[in-house]
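Table S2 (continued). Query chain:
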Amino acid sequence: MVKIVKLNEAGLIVHCAEIPEDHAVWEGYVLFDGQLAAPPPVPQVITRRQRNLWLGASRVMQIKAAISAISDPTEKHHAAVHFNDAESTERYHPLTIAMAAIVDLTTDEQIDQAFIEASQL
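Corresponding output:
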């Protein structure tokens, strides 16, 4: 018998099973040898290019529309500069978190996963 596990996006085991050695590993599962690789580290910074490629055109437009709708001129300017002009996006910047919510990234885990995926583009 061999152990197989199914991992979630954070790299945590969500299901474990034992199957005979001569059986194929179930779809979505990996062999478990007693050692789990650590989940990838969450980058603290991604480039504007990585962020925009990950977001895609429709989400970029959602964020730009939300910035345009800000009534306070100073807040609108800060948000526009943060989104349009900054060379990089910082994971824990308050405007990053606010803009993530615009595209329905509302939990730390969702934002972390977005940064991990964007960093690979």
